[in-house]
Amino acid sequence: MRHKTLYILLLFPLIAVQAQGIYSLKELYYFSPYTETMLFDPHYDSKNKIEYYSIEDYMRIYYEYNEEGQIEKKTTYLWDEDWHRANWDKYKETTYTYQDGRIAEERTKLVTYEYQWGIPITPQTTETRRYTLSADKKTETVDVINYDPEKKTADTTLLIRTLDNNLDITHIEAFKIKNKKKELTGSFSPKYTVRYDNKGRIIKQLLDVDGGTFLEGTFSYQKNGYTTISKKFNRVLLGYLPRDNFEYTVSRPNANNEEYIILTAISNGKYVNHEKITLTYKAPLLVSSKTRDYTFNDKYISSEKTENTFDSKGQLTKSILYDLNKETKEWEKEQKHIYEYDNNGFISLHEEYMMRDNTWQGEEKYKWAFTPSGELTYHEKSEWKAGKWVYEDKIEKSYTISGKLSSKAEYRWYGEKWEPYERTDYTYDNTDRILTETLYKEDLSVWKPSYMKVYGYTPTKYSITEKWWRDDEWQTIREIIKTCDGKQSIESEIIHGYEISRKNGIEIKTPVSREIRRTIKYVQPSSYYDSLRIKDLEKVKTMY
Q: Cα(first)–Cα(last) distance of the chain, in Å?
């Protein structure tokens, strides 16, 4: 059981969630034969058609359908309170293709912004799932391929799903692919039951896992448009402690103006942790206020509230966080965020303030600039000192006509002016292959060459030469040459250096080079994911 749980955690890209109970829903996501249908809560439109599924206060999945009523596109939104989109943020998009009425392939691409040191970047990782039904229709194979085009690597997982006569899944085995061998990492035997009312809406869910009931959900739909959802989860079946079991209740009006979520952790049949969330919507996916209350062992812990303001385009412009004063029972302002955007909808400003002595005092401020297509050209950070904003550092980027990065320069604010810190320049050939990468460092407030990479290309050879700037000239320190004839690849790594000796008290440098060779042999790929991997690495003795 323990191995199964660990495997699920590795499969799903885990993102921190405040509600511990909701965390366990993601652990079963990849194993689910019904994905959203099994674990998420459905939201119906006025025609009783499912508009989207959700894990409350964490994830929403919207659908677009083709003329046959099949899912054509799926867009996933995540709740993000950490940065400029303190609301429902578009996370990824999935498109589907079908064969004989069944899903044959689904492709998922991440579309949201992530952040590194305050700089927004767009992740490039994609996922492809290919479904193959056996001739006797007793099993289905699912190739799950996570591909990173920047690193040019693929992480492949294989799911073998056992089917019954109705093509419903009765058992799942999960494998990692290593050297063309399948390594079993977990197994799972789901038994899913769902019941509907006379309008086709879900009213009951049951999920049995390895002989026990993991999920029990009930749904009720009132005449005034309100929906009530109650769910219980038994995490003990996944190897967790009894205190990790939980349940939640959602009361949701149909008009999307407000909903209530109650999350409760259970230990040995007793409620030990209680959380109530109230969301008020200005429009779908635009939360104008959010209130969160906590208790533990029947004792009040804390309560907080966030109020959001949006512009006419639905972009968040202000967010204020309140804390409840336990003595006066009044909401007190604690934190404020201000946001601005450019004409293309990219964030251009983020200011963070804290309330101190009944006055807003700054914490951090960021400024950005982007090209119309979304490439970052400018990033600036300031901190609040002595009652005013003071510059700290900035980054400037430039691009070629085709959109390749041509320069990145970093500066530090020192002595009331911007001082250079580090810069990298890039050059490319007419096919946008990189030719040189040159690093400059600050020296007496000017750029000074420091390090360089030079790239070379032929139909069968690829090379990288590394150089240091020493004694006012470029000195080669390492060469890497790779040749490939389609059957094998030979990599030669030549390291250049010096041996230092002394003669008559005089230091003598003697150039010395050391060569390391590696041979990589290829096998004929048997499938898509095999073709992405290098097989049978064979090392050759080091030569000097």
A: 51
